[in-house]
Amino acid sequence: QVQLVESGGGLVQAGGSLRLSCSASGRTFSRYDMGWFRQAPGKMREFVALITRLATTTNYADIVKGRFTISRDNLKNTTYLQMNSLKPEDTAVYYCAAKSGIRLTTDMREYDYWGQGTQVTVSS
User: Fold this and answer.
1) How does pLDDT run across 100-118, given as a tens digit for each residue?
2) Which of 26, 47, 83, 109 has the fewest Cβ atoms within 10 angstroms?
3) Which tens digits make up the pLDDT trace of 65-93?
């Protein structure tokens, strides 16, 4: 089992920034690709960003590209999502997830472990 705990969410005005953190325990963190997903009211969960185990590759959903940055610190067992230029439509519960195996994917069904989520609310 891998335990993931998100933090850093909150209320921010449009145009502002937040930095989300996801702390992992239970397994060797560097074995896992990490992803961020979000789910807004009335919408399905969607992919936001991913980073591979050694941070050699990152990928972003088009709707956040240029505004969000994913990173990780394997020595701290933590991955981050820096969110800038936030918009009201970014309001959602944000989840981090860990994926074992070798296939790089944005499909949430391929991720093995999930945190409980952290709420991000962007006011207009």
Assistant:
1) 988 889 999 999 999 999 9
2) 109
3) 999 999 999 999 999 999 999 999 999 99
CA atoms within 13 A on the CB side of 24: 29
Q: How far apart are CA 83 and CA 94, in angstroms?
A: 11
**Six-digit token pair at 14?**
């449009």
- Say if CB 94 and CB 81 are below 8 A apart: yes
**How many whole angstroms separate alpha carbon 121 and alpha carbon 117?**
13
Q: Which residues contact 32 (CB under 8 A, 6 or more apart)?
A: 2, 24, 53, 98, 99, 100, 113
